[in-house]
Design brief:
Blueprint lengths: L2 E5 L3 E2 L5 E8 L4 E10 L6 E7 L4 E3 L7 E6 L4 E6 L8 E10 L9 E4 L3 E5 L2
Parallel strand pairs: 2-11
Antiparallel strand pairs: 1-3, 3-8, 4-5, 4-9, 5-6, 7-8, 9-10, 9-11
């Protein structure tokens, strides 16, 4: 079974930085994409950033210029570098992976979620 293990969430002051990590493990053949989502209290879960296996990235407008997503392919790990943090960035951040567990032709991709890590931005 596939597992995503997240780390790096913390309490940080406005303007500060954090780096989130998410390591995928288990029966993984190939990861097509990894992404970060977040969910603030009373709000819906929203997409923060995505990175595809060709290296392309996509960011939500509210984090462009402040956050950066990257991958370590040898470790099946995705990172989210968060700079210039604002109180409105406070949320539980979730890791997501779109991957295959078998190498056969047309093997289906499935999505998996991490447990979430709390980011709190406050003075």
């Amino acid at each position: 079974q596939v597992q995503l293990v997240e780390s790096g969430g913390d309490l940080v002051q406005p303007g500060g930085s954090l780096r989130l990590s998410c390591a995928a493990s288990g029966s993984i053949f190939s990861i097509y994409a990894m992404a970060w989502y977040r969910q603030a209290p009373g709000k819906q879960r929203e997409l923060v950033a995505t990175i595809i296996n060709d290296g392309s990235t996509n960011y939500a407008d509210f984090v462009k210029g402040r956050f950066a997503i990257s991958r370590d392919y040898a470790k099946n790990t995705v990172y989210l570098q968060m700079n210039g943090l604002k109180p409105e960035d406070t949320a539980v951040y979730y890791c997501n992976a779109d991957l295959t567990t078998r190498a056969y032709v047309n093997a289906p991709r499935r999505t998996y979620w991490g447990q979430g890590t709390q980011v709190t931005v406050s003075s």
